[in-house]
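Suppose you are handed a protein chain with no further information: no name, no annotation, nothing but its sequence. What can you learn? This example shows the usual starting point.
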Amino acid sequence: TNTERFYKQLSSVRALQALVGKPENADFDCKEWPARQDDARRIIAKAACGFTNATGGVIVIGVKASGAGANTPDVVRSLASVANRHAVASAALDIILQSVEPGIEGIRTKTIAEGKSKPSGFVLLFVPASDGPPRRSKVDGRFYVRIASGTLPMEFFQVEERFGRRPLPRLSLTIEVSNMMMDPPGHDGGAI
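A reasonable first move is to predict its three-dimensional structure. Written in structure tokens, the prediction is:
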């Protein structure tokens, strides 16, 4: 998907710097890692629910983004690396595991070092879209969905529709080739 390609492309500090000046959109959301654990739980659970209840997306931790005003998307302003990227990646995954229900399958994470042999850097979380019922944040009990560049509480009709949605069937095709000799047309099976 486009979101997976975007996640794979973000593999260096240079790729993250290329985001500066670009607006957040339906595929990515930038976050600064807060000092308080309660704030981190609220922010990450909300973002993960929003993406998984929509079409999936990438949470980029260690990047500042802000808007120019109401009804405008946040624009990436600068990089704001985290002190210990591995600890933040672990904490973010733990938040999603403990604060989102039902769980989200297929989350991927990677870190980008700010410099050689430095623990500081950036954390990226790929959150896939989920089938079946909607996911909610256990922090505040709300269902969220990512719409354009914002993460909003789901409307009643959206929640109702998702609860009625059945998981898509997972189809696989298996072709078996066998090495059989075929009798020519009109042959009755006897010797030729």
